[in-house]
Amino acid sequence: MDLIKRAILIFGICVYSSTPILSNSFLQEGLAEIPIKFLNLAKKSDLVDYMVKIRRKIHENPELGFEEFETSELIRSELDKMGIFYKHPFGITGVVGFIGSGDTPFVALRADMDALAMQEEVEWEHKSKVPGKMHGCGHDAHVAMLLGAAKMLQEHRNDIKGTIVLVFQPAEEGGAGAKKMLDDGALENVEAIFGLHLSSLHPVGNVASRTGPILAASGFFEAVISGKGGHAAIPQQTIDPILAASNVVVSLQHLVSREADPLDSQVVTVGKFQGGGAYNVIPDSVTIGGTFRAFSKESFEKLKRRIAEVITGQAAVQRCKASVDFTAMGKTFYPVTVNNKDLHKHFQKVAKDMLGAENLQEMQPLMGAEDFSFFAEAIPGYFYFVGMHNETQGKLESSHSPYFTINEDTLPYGAALHASLATRYLLENQPKTITQDKSIHEEL
């Protein structure tokens, strides 16, 4: 950021910071107390009620990737009320807010905003009002928790030794909104970023993460296998694309079972198979499609190459032709999400101070994908999961289910972790001051 941009940012933060400030003694009792204090603040009824209200309002009005106009407007309105300076748009609907001095160091907190194209099947007071759209992955809660953290941070902004950047991101669900925000300069000057996700597998008050790869690289493919259609009773006069496509599907499964190292987790799944419309007609073509996942760039690129070879080769064996498209429906490849080892140590210290060591869980990598990976490729990043399961309330459905629900008791934990991770990061990573050597000074 050049001098003029920095001056504008600092001026904006100063203008928005003209409201009364609470006592700046918040951080005077030591780093270990910060997470506990933030959790106590986050559990206060007024802040809990605020986050619940925000989350339910967003849940009722879900918007798909790059269409989060009302959600973005709501976020900007809330930031205005808090007196937080922000910039907009990034990635069409994204919002970036700033809390603190406007000077280095800069650390970012990220929340995704988009919903899924699915019909909600949960009957409750705040069910989605938009047919065919649902917050089935918890992004509504992610936004609410980051706004909750923003409230606490803004109240204690005089204690912030640097700048906390609030990243409200569009289009995580397949749209690579993180990449779009990066391209638009959303993380300019930021040296580290944290992101979270709710988990129905872990109890409330627990967190789970790991260092290194945590989520897989993800890609999609679609192939059209073309033959020669005709009457099903005279197959010798046809070139059957259904038979060819069936062989392709079986052969694709061998890429993992027979070509991949068993210790190198990979997935190839065919989820789409479309061809023909009558029982007695062999169609001219069949379309198949699916996804592939891996935990290294090398394995991912090899899978991509072999998928194309298998599809075209197996189609040729059956006298068919095949075309393979890896950009189906505008999908973007997501890189592996890799957690920085130094940020992992930082996360463990903060989470331990807040929740106790017994509530920190080391998790295995998941084959799911996240576009937070684009952020973590560009700068040191850290992604973790916040538990929301409560045995007394019954089983929670997993994300991307039409029956997905959220235990709102977890909202204070996410907000407090956001605030604590960022605040302590800034305090522990202050710019080193140049001190003059005493002997040289005396000699001069």
Automatic annotation (TrEMBL):
Domain of life: Eukaryota
Cofactor: Mn(2+)
InterPro entries from the UniProt entry: Amidohydrolase, Bact_exopeptidase_dim_dom, ILR1-like_Hyd, Peptidase_M20, Peptidase_M20_dimer
Residue span, Peptidase M20 dimerisation domain: 222-312
Cofactor binding note from Swiss-Prot or TrEMBL: The Mn(2+) ion enhances activity.
One Pfam family matching this protein: M20_dimer
Recorded GO CC terms: endoplasmic reticulum
Aminoacyl-tRNA synthetase listed as a keyword: no
Residues bound to Mn(2+) 1: E173
GO BP term, example: auxin metabolic process
GO terms assigned for molecular function: IAA-Ala conjugate hydrolase activity; metal ion binding
UniProt-listed CDD domains: M20_IAA_Hyd (cd08017)
Cleaved signal peptide residues: none
Keyword terms of this UniProt record: Hydrolase, Manganese, Metal-binding, Signal
Family: Belongs to the peptidase M20 family.
Protein's name in the database: IAA-amino acid hydrolase ILR1-like 4
Species, as recorded: Heracleum sosnowskyi
